[in-house]
Design goal:
The complex is a heterodimer of chains A (260) and B (167).
Chain A lengths: L5 H7 L1 H6 L8 H9 L18 H4 L2 H20 L9 H10 L6 H25 L8 H23 L4 H15 L15 E2 L2 E2 L7 H6 L6 H32 L8
Helix pairs in contact in A: 5-7, 7-8, 8-9, 8-11
Chain B lengths: L2 H5 L3 H29 L11 E3 L9 E3 L3 H4 L1 E6 L2 E6 L10 E3 L4 E3 L6 E3 L4 E3 L8 E6 L5 E9 L13 E2 L1
Classes of the chains: A mainly alpha (260), B alpha+beta (167).
């Protein structure tokens, strides 16, 4: 038994070996196996260039964005235990999250994290642009990144309504009026006039994209429920899938880019 | 050729079956997606009615009357022998302005657009005057307001006899 520590004994147990198929990461082959054999880490490149991961080059903005996304997922999930998306309860529940719940800064963390994520996404994009990391073979991943940027802004927008105060309602009124001006699909946009046969209006405030977004002609309770579902379930699911694709393509497109 | 090989598919038949299969699959998925799209438009919603009866013309004094503002989003404005139903939606970005009797103007709290009592914009970012709704008299002499029809000043529609009542 001499020479073998507790750690070595644990590594020899069947439980340990059933979880980790590879040996200890003490050589290049095992270190590669650590990455390739883990469902989460395998999205990540097996090897990185030392010059590519310098803080001065990447600013770690992509990684920070992902970290904040995880933090927002956890805090948001905790907030969902107390928040009810109805006109009667929503605002009171937001107050209660501060007054009636331990760790009353949970909503503040979520809110500040949301601001931080928008900022880090922009900075990440700026860094990728300035280092030319959008160029072939990474142009597809730039496209994925643009979609993720838009989804981040939509998460921010849909979350804005949930406090259900005056600021939220009027901000979403103003914001959703942009949907009203969508060409052909919004009743106030260019092309809506063309889709009119006599007195019959094909694109009206009862069937355009703004109605679909709000579930009504103005920001009311159906809008609150729709924004809640979009904010808590639909958009995060799409973002989660696209983040996986984004990381996988970093690996497949030759790893993280590096200074020339 | 034996009986057995005749019954099995040849290469050409196989591909035509595959094509039919894919067309059916695509049509099925497309049908389900369009159903899902239609699902997002409810058959019934509980928005306020778009038309309403607003009493008799004699009920309104000269100036701005706010009795229908909260329920229907309409100001009744009586001025210079005309009664109009003015929309309370700001033409800038859709907030609800406030009537300031002391200053005789509608003032939007969101970005500061201001409108005269007539609905004509004079300050702030509003690009055009407030809209008028269709107003008319029913056979019993009561006022009927129809919000599905709007009249815009910048299109010259305020000359339309449906956009005001002579009182």
């Amino acid at each position: 038994m001499s020479g073998k520590g507790l750690a070595d004994k644990v590594r020899e147990t069947q439980v340990w070996k059933s979880i980790f198929r590879h040996g200890p990461p003490t050589n290049a082959r095992n270190r590669a196996a650590v990455i390739a054999g883990n469902v989460f880490l395998h999205l990540h490149p097996i090897k990185l260039k030392k010059s590519g991961v310098q803080l001065g080059y990447t600013w770690c903005m992509g990684g920070l964005t992902f970290f904040i996304f995880l933090a927002l997922t956890v805090t948001g999930l905790l907030l969902m235990f107390y928040y009810r998306p109805t006109a009667e309860y929503a605002f009171n529940d937001i107050i209660a999250l501060r007054e009636h719940v331990p760790l009353g800064i949970m909503r503040e963390i979520h809110r500040w994290g949301a601001h931080a994520m928008v900022i880090t996404v922009w900075l990440h994009m700026f860094r990728v642009f300035m280092t030319g990391s959008y160029k072939p073979p990474r142009e597809f991943n730039w496209g994925i990144g643009v979609v993720l940027l838009i989804l981040t802004l939509l998460l921010s927008f849909t979350g804005y309504l949930l406090p259900w105060d005056q600021l939220a309602i009027w901000a979403i009124t103003v914001g959703s009026n942009m949907a009203k001006a969508t060409p052909f699909m919004g009743h106030g946009g260019p092309g809506a006039m063309l889709a009119q046969i006599g007195d019959f209006v094909m694109v009206s405030d009862k069937n355009d994209v703004r109605f679909q977004l709000l579930g009504g002609r103005f920001v009311g309770e159906p809008a609150l429920l729709r924004f809640y579902i979009l904010h808590c379930v639909f958009i995060p699911l799409v973002v989660g899938v696209l983040i996986a694709v984004h990381f996988w393509r970093v690996r497949k497109d030759g790893g993280i880019s590096a200074p020339l | 050729m034996s009986e057995e090989t005749k019954q099995s598919l040849n290469r050409r038949e196989f591909f035509s079956y595959i094509t039919v299969g894919w067309v059916a699959f695509t049509a099925g998925v497309g049908g389900l997606l369009s159903l899902a799209f239609r699902y997002t438009y409810p058959n019934v919603n509980f928005d306020p009615e778009m038309d309403f009866t607003a009493g008799l013309p004699a009920d309104y004094a000269s100036g701005v009357d706010e009795r229908w503002k909260n329920q229907y989003g309409v100001w009744m404005v009586k001025q210079e022998g005309k009664l109009v139903a003015l929309s309370n939606i700001c033409t800038h970005l859709g907030c609800i302005p406030t009537w300031l009797p002391g200053e005789l103007k509608f003032k939007c709290p969101c970005h500061g657009s201001g409108y005269y009592m007539s609905g004509i914009n004079f300050e702030g970012p509003a690009p055009r005057p407030l809209e008028r709704y269709k107003i008319g008299l029913m056979p019993d002499g009561k006022i009927k307001i129809d919000k599905t029809k709007v009249f815009r000043w910048e299109k010259g529609e305020w000359e339309n006899p449906d956009s005001f009542l002579n009182v």
